[in-house]
Amino acid sequence: MRQEIFDSTTRIKQLSQKPSDFLTELLVQQQQFACIEWLFHFQIFRQIPLNGSISYGELATRTQLPESDIRATARMAITANLLSETKQGKLAHNSLSADLFEDPGLWTWFSYLIKRSVPCMRAYTQASEKQLEVVESARTAYTIAMKTELSFFDHLKTNPELSAEFGKYMKSQSTVHAGATVDHLVEGFDWASLGEAKIVDVGGNSGTASMALAKHFEKLSFVVQDMPEPVHNGRLQAQSLSRKISERIQFVEHDFFTPQPDETKGADVYLFRMILHDWPDEDAVKILRHVAAAGKEGSRVVVMDMVLPIPGTASPTLEAALRQKDLMMRQVLNSREREVEDWHALFGKVDERLQIVAIRRPEGSQHSIIEISL
């Protein structure tokens, strides 16, 4: 119902919108975000009591910023339905800003969007100009925005603070983003039909997906593979689980650009949840070839990733959200989200045994589940 309301209002606006309306709205949206970013940077949100209000004069005293600038900036944010002003002219949270501030997952998402995602969007044009000069996979909007010569994942490896921040962001996406929650993976594939089976969670970060599946399907066992830091974090998180669940989840340090270790050869399922969209085809083929070489007859590859719709065939608001993700992959990683034919072509490059059995998008999910047989 919410999606239908969003779609209907979007269509009505688009049908009645004149060019001048479009340009005005575009300008307003840019200013609204610039003001929200300003309020975040100067920690104004943290100065506002959750169950009360604060005068602009008091905010000016605390932050040493001009009172008129705080008032003008906050009032612009209010036009985006963020924050509110009392009858006495004081600044207060509204339900939306209070939810953002109180929910750790939402605040992590909000912070990452402002500090990492949007700067990459702003550097997109400059990065494309650089790529016209020289084809260089490491030169992305991310490297320009973050002032580094390292690619995204190499940058994380050298900076534990950034790595931890990204790990928290990914976890937040699995818990607070309705279209990206792990529930869609749990409910969108017939895991129970596997019986007693071994699942290798390739690039599984700290094991969010495996933990959720282990809670629901007691006959499944899991091997979560990733780099040292997320594996360490996963082991710590698993300590809070009941023994009945934790004893079925193993954490292993593994670089998926190398062959699968002996203990994960012949697994029943190799799971890639939001992994392959991080890599251009050349790298994705390398990753999948190691899995194809390790699998046995009857093994399956289960990919939960985005499948871009044919333009105009999906809800306009959903399509916009998916295409935003596609652009972020391009801006950060020189990768992309893929359409159906792209997925067929990708698996065809890996091994002729790999055949797509089914593609399903669970209701409410931004991601589809792609089942591939070996």
Automatic annotation (TrEMBL):
One of its GO terms (molecular function) is O-methyltransferase activity. It comes from the Eukaryota. Signal peptide: none annotated. Residues 150-348 form the O-methyltransferase C-terminal domain. Coiled coil: none annotated. One of its GO terms (biological process) is methylation. Gene3D superfamilies: Vaccinia Virus protein VP39, Winged helix-like DNA-binding domain superfamily/Winged helix DNA-binding domain. The keyword DNA repair does not apply. Keywords: Methyltransferase, S-adenosyl-L-methionine, Transferase. CDD domains: AdoMet_MTases. This is Methyltransferase.
